[in-house]
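Input sequence (312 aa), recorded before submission:
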Amino acid sequence: MPSGAAKHTLPARRVALMNQKGGVGKTTTTVNLAAALARAGRPTLVVDLDPQAHATLHLGVDPAALERSLYDVLVSEEVAPALVLHEAEKNLALLPAHTDLAAAEGELAQSPDRNQRLSRALERMEGLFRYVLIDCPPSLGTLTLNALACADEVLIPMQSHFLALQGVGKLLETVGAVRQSLNPRLAVTGVVLCAHDPSSAHAREVVADLESFFAQSRDAGQPWSDAGVLRPPVRRNIKLAECPSFGKTIFAYAPQAPGAEDYAALAAGLMKTWDAHDRERAAPPVHTPASRATTNSPATAPAAAPASRAAS
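Predicted structure, token format:
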């Protein structure tokens, strides 16, 4: 449990970071974005839902030395998740993974509640964290469905390459299917560009295609209708590749590096957006007097949604 943790009145914002393509900067973004949020004074939890346990290693925890891990929390509700927490830094905690997490998919396959195990575990820690960032495995199975079933929103880390762009469409289809069947509040916040090279003409073309797609999706009633390409992009930076081998975040390893600057700026932008949403949630409802309500113009039907390029 985080030292000196205070209860938070608003529910924790749960963010799933996912991409079915590996090696795109998903774990790097999960860990360093979480560290940036924590350093801004926001208690943050990293949930390592990937059996490769890369987020666990990145935060300096040896999976082989763990007595208990997220696997135990998911397969047995007798294991209190707070007892499995590791404090990585001030305001930054970890629910660690072990390679045996891969076995959880098979063990939970026949359980009617198999997709709600993570949600119930996080509910048992409600009030401890402001943000929960979930590092999803690069596949669509029970573990990823657990993340999407409990998340409020999805961040998509990706590199600005043609093949990565093609995979985004399939990923968005997955999010749409989960919103229909498991989690009606699930939405896509946007794409985080990783290892970005702004001097590359190809990268600029991919970013332009993404921005065009999201612009066409406005008011289309899709989970990604309010999404966009988040700024700033995370520049290609060797320090980001080096810091996991030392079990450190970019802020602990190379705080002056461009990667630290970019993740801090990305976190600041997200906190500004999330704080605005939290104020809206906390505000009392506004009641319109009946006499004024009758003078309003009748509602008009929304315009037809543009065709989704992701579905093509």
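Checked by second reader. Residues 258-282 form the longest helix (25 residues).
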